[in-house]
Amino acid sequence: MFIDGNNLYFVQRKLKWNIDFEKLLNYFKGNENFYNAFYYSGYDTTDQNQENFLKALTLIGYTVRKKPLKTISSLDSEEKQKSNMDVEITLDLIVTSNHYDEAYLFSGDSDFESVVEYLRMIGKEVVVVSTLGHIAIELRNAADRYVDLAELREYLEKSHA
Question: What is the pLDDT of residues 17-46, one digit of tens each?
Answer without folding.
Answer: 999 999 999 999 876 689 999 999 998 888
